[in-house]
TrEMBL record:
Keywords: Acyltransferase, Transferase. Residues 3-153 form the N-acetyltransferase domain. SUPFAM superfamilies: Acyl-CoA N-acyltransferases (Nat). InterPro entries: Acyl_CoA_acyltransferase (IPR016181), Bact_Acetyltransf (IPR050832), GNAT_dom (IPR000182). It is an enzyme of class 2 (transferase). It comes from Dyella halodurans. Transmembrane segments: none annotated. This is GNAT family N-acetyltransferase. Its EC number is 2.3.-.-. The keyword Acyltransferase applies. GO terms for molecular function: acyltransferase activity. It comes from the Bacteria.
């Protein structure tokens, strides 16, 4: 059983859309609009400044993904890389897929001289919190606030 990580390609968009929809449902019971979701995923490929996706293949089968976006830190004069839209297909869970994705992102971030990695996790998702802690991430002392605006047409 091998896990390989590669940059996502446009041909992966159907997987990325499917996995994002599944992740939103599994973690928040939130049904995403597939048209908006496909437009959002495609926009990352259209504008690389937004970030990039990585795809994990488990025994040659696309089995998971994550998105990296950037946050400039004026305090540190560098970018934090935010890990978002993490999903591992059910059949590949507990097989090291996320661990491999994380290791790849960490290596890329260090090579790019990012100042660190960040992610957010649902407060009730204890399994994910244990996973992130096990990879050496620390829970920070910030709360996250949000003001969501209606979608532009």
């Amino acid at each position: 059983m091998t896990v390989t990580i590669r940059p996502a390609e446009r041909t992966d968009i159907p997987y990325l859309v499917q996995w994002n929809a599944a992740m939103a449902w599994e973690t928040e019971q939130k049904a995403l609009d597939p048209v908006v979701l496909e437009r959002g995923v495609t926009a990352v490929f259209d504008e690389p400044r937004r970030g990039f996706y990585l795809v994990a293949e488990h025994d040659g089968t696309p089995s998971g993904c994550l998105l990296v976006t950037y946050e400039w830190s004026d305090w540190r004069a560098g970018d934090f890389w935010w890990i978002q839209s993490v999903y591992v297909a059910a059949a590949a869970r507990r097989a090291g897929v996320f661990r491999s994705l994380y290791a790849n992102v960490e290596q890329r971030a260090r090579e790019a001289r990012a100042v660190g990695l960040r992610l957010y996790v649902e407060t009730e998702n204890a399994r994910a919190q244990r996973t992130y802690a096990g990879l050496g991430m620390d829970r920070c002392h910030y709360f996250m606030y949000e003001a969501e605006f209606p979608a532009a047409s």
